[in-house]
Amino acid sequence: MQPYDVAIVGAGNAALCAALAARETGARVVVLESAPEELSGGNTRFTAGAMRVVYDGVGDLARLMPDLTEEEKQRTDFGSYPADAFFEDMGRVTQYRTDPELAETLVGRSLDTLLWMRSKGVRFAPIYGRQAFKVDGRFKFWGGLTVEAWGGGPGLVEALTRACRDSGIDILYDCRAEKLVREQQAITAVIARHRGRMLRIEAGAVVLAAGGFQANPEWRTRYLGPGWDLAKVRGTRFNQGDGLRMALQIGAASRGNWSGCHAVGWERNAPEFGDLDVGDGFQKHSYPFGIMLNARGRRFVDEGADFRNFTYAKYGRVILEQPGQFAWQIFDRKVAHLLRDEYRIRQVTRVTADTLEALVAKLDDVDAQAALDEIRSYNAAVDVSKPFDPNVKDGRGTPGLAVPKSNWANRIDEPPFEAYAVTCGITFTFGGLSIDREARVLDASGKPIPGLFAAGEMVGGLFYFNYPGGTGLTAGAVFGRIAGTSAATVAAAA
Ligand SMILES: Cc1cc2nc3c(=O)[nH]c(=O)nc-3n(C[C@H](O)[C@H](O)[C@H](O)COP(=O)(O)OP(=O)(O)OC[C@H]3O[C@@H](n4cnc5c(N)ncnc54)[C@H](O)[C@@H]3O)c2cc1C
Q1: Whose CA is nearest to atom 48 of ligand 1?
Q2: Pocket test for ligand 1, best of 33, 47, 482 (most atoms within 8 A of CB)
Q3: Does the CB atom of residue 235 touch ligand 1 within 6 A?
Q4: Which of the 8 DSSP states describes residue 43?
Q5: pLDDT tens for residues 87-146?
């Protein structure tokens, strides 16, 4: 096999951005991907393509989305998302543990990186369906998440893959990297199994972008703790922790929240791994407008603690901790129009009834009487003196309840009533490798391992406990691009 300047492990968003950035410098680039082509694209392909990005009003958005029409601009309040707000969101949701240097790089390079992706053929659109509600005839965006890749995750993977092919990057599918070769100090090759045959791929530098370990139940139990073997995997089955293992084996330092992960409320009867035909449709993210009950018929979390973007990634864990690892989300007619489109898919565990008594009787595996009592006490506590407004944290709460609901509390009293069964779906793991601003992988003494770079889910130190929605793809793109450029520079100098 011919020698390459840069070998990239993985073919998700981070890897493909790394490949394109390396290729821009003239480097010869190869991408190694475990999955066969029809299942490739990693977790990236399962996403809706939502990307958190700094923007200063509609002017910046128009640079990203030149297709925005005057009519759209008129009927939409896009607001702005300043760097300070993104940085503060990263700090707040991670309990101020996020590495400030990495977070600053992510935030500071977000817009520039999305514009660069656009120059490579990725198109963007406003996320009207999920991140904006119509008030007084105008859409208003909330929570800092405004942009999605055209065609969602599949569209993003397709656009990046096409750009790679057009620029002469080789992509080997069904090619699982197994080992890094470190000679003297530097990384010089990757050993991989390509369609059953062992390959040694010589390269001046290697970028690891092979995702986390969420699809590996043994590692989940080992690092996240007991019970995590029982979670469903929302995305690809191929993110088994290979990249992390290979790097740790040659002396890379681990970093970040190895006992933490992104996990959400997910259809209780979903398959063990993600289903590309359903994508992210198994998620059930409208809980801020209803309540959640466990097997004992009890509420167990503040469903309205914050905007959905800032709670959904940690509530999967809370559901996993409930008896039987499930919960029911309950809504009434008043809020049914606010439910996201994922509530209307065919593969959903849903019950409806015209009375609360009939509804609780239909909730599988739940103490019906306790559930009825709980809904009644909740209803009695709702502070109806404050107006309900889904676009702002409206402070409409439930004073006096042991488990409060801090915003968007509505009585559940208008039939028909609807309930949806959810369990925990794990998205990706937070623990990763220690990298610096140039995406160089560091060893335990804090020194870069020559020729080794990492990006995407494999980066440790960015996310702890929680995560602001839409940051994974942006982080993958920002650090992938940096890793690709750094790797090509090192390879050229070697
Ligand atoms: C259902 C769902 C919805 C999501 N929605 C969003 C969203 O809207 N916005 C957002 O920002 N984030 C979202 N995320 C998170 C997002 O998917 C990830 O943060 C991001 O895609 C990670 O990109 P990545 O390139 O690091 O990993 P991936 O895209 O997972 O790519 C890793 C690749 O490495 C390959 N690989 C693994 N091991 C090897 C090996 N040994 N050799 C070769 N290749 C290997 C895998 O097959 C995979 O293709 C969502 C995730 C899921 C599952």
Answers
A1: 42
A2: 47
A3: yes
A4: G
A5: 999 999 999 999 999 999 999 999 999 999 999 999 999 998 766 677 777 888 877 899
From the CB of residue 354, how many other CB atoms can be counted at a distance below 10 Å? 10
Q: Considering Cα of 307, then 312, then 315, then 317, what sign does the dihedral take?
A: negative
Question: Given the CA of residue 178, which atom of ligand 1 is nearest to it?
Answer: 41
* Centroid of chain to Cα 283: 12
What values do phi and psi take at 170, rounded to 5?
A: -85, 135
Cα-Cα end-to-end distance for the chain: 19
**DSSP per-residue letters across 77-133:** E---B-HHHHHHHHHHHTTT-S-HHHHHHHHHTHHHHHHHHHHTT--EEE-HHHHEE
- Closest ligand 1 atom to residue 472 Cα is 19
Q: Which two tokens stand for residue 158?
A: 């397709």
Cα–ligand 1 centroid distance for 251 (angstroms): 24
Angle between helices 13-24 and 152-166 (to 10 degrees): 30
Share of the chain above pLDDT 70, in %: 99
How far does residue 349's CA lie from ligand 1's centre (Å)? Answer: 26
Q: Name 361's Cβ contacts closer than 8 Å, sequence gap at least 6.
A: 353, 368
CA-proximal residue: ligand 1, atom 15 (nearest): 472
Residue 60: CB within 6 Å of ligand 1?
A: no
What would you report as the CA-atom Rg of the chain, rounded to the nearest whole angstrom? 23
